[in-house]
Fold this sequence. Notes:
Layout: E1 2-4, E2 10-12, E3 16-17, H1 21-33, H2 37-48, H3 53-60, H4 64-76, E4 81-85, E5 88-92, H5 96-108
Antiparallel strand pairs: 1-2, 2-3, 4-5
Helix pairs in contact: 2-5, 3-4
Amino acid sequence: MIVAGRGGGAVEDGIGEAPTSAQIEVAAETFRMLSSSTRLLIMWHLVHRESDVTGLAEASGASVQAVSQHLAKLRLAGLVSSRREGRRIVYLVDDPHVVTMVSEIFDHIAPDGSLAPDPEPRAAGPLSARS
């Protein structure tokens, strides 16, 4: 059953308040940004270490110009940030939500491209044994 939530959003029984239309739009745009395999590979590299555009081009196998264009889009979307170190611009992912999202998708997919097996369920705690 769906009822009105405190912020005006719908609340489904037991799962909390539904996302707003603004949240849905931003989430969809985030997934659109990550739908490019080159951008996703750049993000994977940046989740693991900061880098400049040349290092990312070498790591991804793309041209410096292409990587630079991808980084501009990722920065505008708020997924990547940068800082100047002398003449170099260093790119990084410093939002823990983005780090988690990128890390989780690669934990979910096995190296051969199939879905990775689900992790073992945790042992039931003392509260879950009660009925």
